[in-house]
Amino acid sequence: CSDGIVGCCTLSAEDPEFWPDALKGEAAYLHKLAVRRTHAGRGVSSALIEACRHAARTQGCAKLRLDCHPNLRGLYERLGFTHVDTFNPGWDPTFIAERLELEI
User: Fold this and answer.
1) Is the pLDDT at 19 greater than 80, yes or no?
2) Number of domains present in the structure of the chain
3) Which of 3, 81, 86, 100 lies 20 to 30 Å from 62, alpha-carbon distance?
């Protein structure tokens, strides 16, 4: 691809800040999903999520989880995620995040 990097994300084995009660190993956690604006709508997000889903499955996880700004909830639901709840991690009473998960 001559366009260079068009999207990125990270995948981790735990997320104690936003999923403090989760059992270790039951899920992998998707963070920092970003797509270059010029490539929005071309399936980059779907491809990245599918790669994370595959990696999580390979690690023996049953779910792929994430937290996001409320405005992004619809995007992730369209990509197959289910809303779990609205969560405040406790460090700012005005901050809320949507927690979602995808069965893998």
Assistant:
1) yes
2) 1
3) 86
* Segment holding 91, helix H or strand E: none
**CATH code of residue 78:** 3.40.630.30
The answer to whether 15 and 65 are in contact (CB under 8 A) is yes
Supply the DSSP string of 8-55, one letter for each residue.
EEEEES--TTT-TTPPTTSEEEEEEEEE-GGGTTTTHHHHHHHHHHHH
Q: State pLDDT tens for residues 89-101.
A: 988 999 999 999 9
Chain position carrying tokens 């639901």: 77
Q: Is residue 48 part of a domain?
A: yes
Whether 75 is covered by a domain: the verdict is yes
Give which of 58, 39, 37, 57 is closest to 47, Cα–Cα: 39
